[in-house]
Specification:
This protein is mostly helical. It has 13 helices and no strands. It is globular, with a radius of gyration of 21 Å. It is found in: Cell membrane.
């Protein structure tokens, strides 16, 4: 029989496939209609709340998944205290955004107007609800609920985008509002799932649960802080040194990479956390090597295909104005492979509560990104940002892999060279 891991990933894969199709269409519409400068503004209003909310929420979300998977707390306790956690984090995310907008109005956020900032605040609150609810669904094995929710989210998002487009009112702020509306629909859908029924029966706040949740979540948030900032740091440095149009060119290149990253690795990260929490050490070590080989092989072949098609595809779908995107995209492709490996290994480490290696990897990678961005972006523009990202992603992947090897003592080749039975979905 197919393993439970395979079944869970199949549900995630459907969700990620939906995201790939929807994001591809979204990029096509927004890239062409907003132009490079408008797309750069949309990128900044979108990236800021996602960055803050991811840092604030993912640690707690993964702590919820870890608690439910490892049965550290009763489901009634987790569900009964969920509303308190979500409301507190939404307040914190909103406050952080307001502070940032107030501190850097003429530097980092000078290209955002009042309407763009309002859309950004709404995205932060809606994204927080989505991620926190996913923590419960992942922990109780509710992966089969995700495909329909994802379809609903992106149908609403794209429907709103098409409406604004048809009315000739498609602006960066309206595009942001459309994205927030999709997130809200997803959040409301998950609240209606049977696994979430206890959320509507809040209990007396459980201080012991909160302490254990934040004890695990603080480390996960610290990891998320470095890894998420590492993904978005270059946006802010490009916006500071260059122009909104340059940010638009570069963000299109990163968006294309992230669309394809969703195909294999991003969903696998969340599936592996509850899976790893229940595995014996020997089985986990062997399966980690196998999953790493599969991830490396698939993303390496994908990167080759994107490299070959980058020039004709970008100019055909987005026009000659986006020609600077092509070179940056090609420099980002090696990093796509490295980042995929990091996502795979991150889910496994978090499932067994070993967060220290991930913190080291994320911190070193963040410092590499910061130093290389400051050195390269003023000199060679967005191509420098792409080079810096690729180098930093491989630094993160290599440090994480070295930590895995200390436990397994396998040769490095065992994590990269594919084997004949790696792609079998059945176990003997």
């Amino acid at each position: 029989m197919a393993s439970k891991l395979t079944k869970n990933y199949a549900h995630i894969a459907v969700s990620q496939g939906t995201i790939v199709l929807a994001k591809s269409l979204l990029l096509f519409i927004l890239g062409r209609e907003l132009g490079a400068s408008g797309f750069g503004v949309y990128t900044l209003l979108f990236a800021t709340p996602i960055l803050i909310s991811t840092i604030a929420t993912l640690g707690v979300s993964r702590a919820i998944t870890f608690s439910l998977s490892g049965e550290a707390h009763r489901r009634e306790t987790v569900l009964g205290n969920h509303a308190y956690l979500v409301c507190g984090i939404i307040f914190m995310v909103t406050a952080c955004q307001v502070v940032l907008f107030s501190l850097f109005p003429e530097t980092l956020f000078n290209i955002l107007g009042r309407s763009e900032k309002t859309a950004s605040l709404l995205i932060g609150a809606a994204f927080t609800l989505q991620v926190a609810n996913n923590g419960i669904l992942h922990g109780v094995g509710g992966f089969h609920r995700l495909p329909l929710g994802t379809v609903l989210q992106w149908a609403v998002n794209l429907g709103a985008i098409v409406f604004f487009w048809s009315q000739s009112t498609l602006t960066p702020s309206n595009a942001g509002l459309a994205y927030a509306l999709g997130l809200i629909v997803f959040g409301l859908y998950t609240l209606r799932c049977p696994e979430m029924r206890g959320v509507f029966r809040p209990q007396k706040p459980d201080i012991v649960y909160f302490k254990s949740c934040f004890a695990y979540g603080s480390k996960a948030s610290a990891l998320t802080l470095t890894s998420t900032i590492n993904l978005r740091l270059d946006y802010y440095i490009v916006a500071y040194f260059l122009s909104a149009a340059d940010l638009g060119f570069y963000s299109l290149a990163t968006s294309v990479c992230e669309v394809f990253l969703n195909v294999f690795s991003r969903g696998l990260d969340f599936v592996l956390l509850p899976w790893a929490a229940k595995q014996s050490a020997n089985n986990r070590i062997e399966q980690t090597a196998r999953l790493t080989r599969v991830t490396f092989t698939l993303t390496f072949l994908l990167a080759i295909g994107i490299f070959m098609l980058a020039t004709p595809a970008v100019t055909f779908f987005f026009g000659q104005q986006y020609e600077p995107t092509v070179t940056a995209l090609k420099y980002l492709l090696p990093g796509l492979v490295g980042l995929s490996l990091s996502y795979t290994l991150t889910g496994i480490f978090m499932g067994v509560g070993q967060l220290t290696p991930l913190l080291w990897a994320g911190t070193v990678s963040f410092l590499a990104t910061l130093i290389l961005d400051i050195v390269l972006i003023p000199r060679i523009g967005i191509n420098g940002a792409a080079m810096a990202s690729s180098i930093a992603y491989w630094v993160q992947a290599w440090i994480t892999l070295a930590a895995v090897r200390r436990e397994s003592e396998y040769a490095y080749s065992r994590y990269f060279i594919p084997r004949k039975n790696d792609f079998s979905i059945r176990r003997k």
